[in-house]
Amino acid sequence: MTANLGTITRIFLATLTLALLAPPASAQDDSHMQWWRDARYGMFIHWGLYSIAGGEWKGKDYGKEQGGASAEWLMNSAKISGKEYRGTLARQFNPTEFDAKEWVAIAKDAGMKYIVITSKHHDGFCLFETNATDYNVMQATPFKRDIIRELSEECVNQGLKFGVYYSQFKDWYHRSRGRNAPGTMSNEEYLAMVEKNLDELLSNYGEMSVLWFDTGGNDVIEADRQGARVRELQPNAVICSRLYSRRVPADKRKYADFESLPDRMLPTERMTKDTETCMTMRHNWGYDRNDNHWKSEKDIIEFLALCGARGVNLLLNVGPTPEGRLLPEETERLKAVGQWMKVNGESIYGATYSPVDFDFWWGAMTQKNKTVYLHVLEWKPEGIEFNGIVGNPRKAHFLNDPQRKSLAVTYDAGRHITKIDVPEKAPDFRNTVIAVEYDSPVTADPDAKGKYHWYTTRSRRHTEIRENRHAGNTDLLDAVKEAK
Ligand code: H79
């Protein structure tokens, strides 16, 4: 009996020791996600043959500006054959002003930690050197420079993570799928081309940190094969859930590392699994000549704060010109957000979602260790008040105050309501961050109640709802209903 017990104890202790020595399987499996989780903010680049047209074809506007599809959908929207699209645009693709060093520097200065560029969009044109099709920048254009090579190398030089968007399912040029999609390749040939393209992208450009697939089909076997290839060749690459169709249940998306929210949609609540939202700075993804619906720098800073509070990465898009330049409207905004990030970045990078599953009239929270960050998007001169956190703060101060002067704090221990006294005028009207520090790790009040007030509809019309963003605003609800 004693011996038995001893044996059991020994086995138990051995197991315990093993369990303590070896990291848990889940932590091991997702260690490649850590940089991505901490990064929070990246640059999306939509660039290709469609950029030359800028949303227009034969004098007609097909951009989202006119309620149509986004500018990179031109081939589909204007019903252009592969032959005509290539014949007209490929010979004009000569963006001599393209400077990878400058683009990466702009992203870095903006506070972005990674870059994802369209290596092949739905129009089938490859921005990289490939042996799988001659429809690529080296063979089909006068430019003959491998854009993916130049950008990937420059990202290494400047310390940013680099990844590619690759349209694996939709390819209007190559993929033949019956009468309405002639394509230059049979479906089997097309799938072989995708595999070859992936091998090239995963083998020829050093570290590939993100594989951003888009609009996946329902064939899980096909998607799994492509996902497995990514894991094999670049085990640390982070794979987008759009490798699979939305109809594939989440637990069947074997190789999806993060969930990508629908285009240009902000999360409406807290997401506790790895999630990213991709967002445009105006309506269109690809360069569009007629799109003036710019979001403001305050909008973008709000997106960053609310995405952070809801546990979501923000992949913010630019659509460079046919000459290879970012637009002044883009660089201005990126610079302004970057300056804000230099001061307030500690509330975003490596910070996690709000301790409470709601937000506040004044804004929302992020957290890190013993600190809660209040992102005050709408100033309340009477004081910034919140429920949901247990404990009397040790100190509160503005992140943009170099002196870190303490703000007066009152704490109602019965109702767990904390109030920070603030000056009459907002130190930063776009988002003033207040760091609220505690003596021990932040503790949420499990009984706390609250609602979401910011961007609570799943509307993509962020520009229009900008001034009507609070829940319960009937104007906003009417506007959303009208849009349907
Ligand atoms: O690359 C950007 C988009 O071009 C791409 N994803 C982002 C990142 C994208 N591919 N598909 N979609 C977005 C959604 C397609 C929506 C559609 Fe339509 C609605 C297809 C048919 C109806 C919009 C309207 C496009 C054509 C008509």
TrEMBL record:
Which GO molecular function terms does the record list? alpha-L-fucosidase activity
One GO CC term on file: lysosome
Q: What positions does the domain Glycoside hydrolase family 29 N-terminal occupy?
A: 26-346
Q: Name one GO biological process term.
A: glycoside catabolic process
Q: Does the keyword Transmembrane apply?
A: no
Keywords, A to Z? Answer: Glycosidase, Hydrolase, Signal
Question: In chain numbering, where does the site feature May be important for catalysis fall?
Answer: 278
Q: Which Gene3D superfamilies match?
A: Glycosidases (3.20.20.80)
* Enzyme class, spelled out: hydrolase
Q: What is its EC number?
A: 3.2.1.51
Q: Where is the signal peptide?
A: 1-27
Say which family it is in. Belongs to the glycosyl hydrolase 29 family.
Question: Main role?
Answer: Alpha-L-fucosidase is responsible for hydrolyzing the alpha-1,6-linked fucose joined to the reducing-end N-acetylglucosamine of the carbohydrate moieties of glycoproteins.
User: Can you name this protein?
Assistant: alpha-L-fucosidase
Give the originating organism: Novipirellula herctigrandis
Upper lineage: Bacteria, Pseudomonadati, Planctomycetota, Planctomycetia, Pirellulales
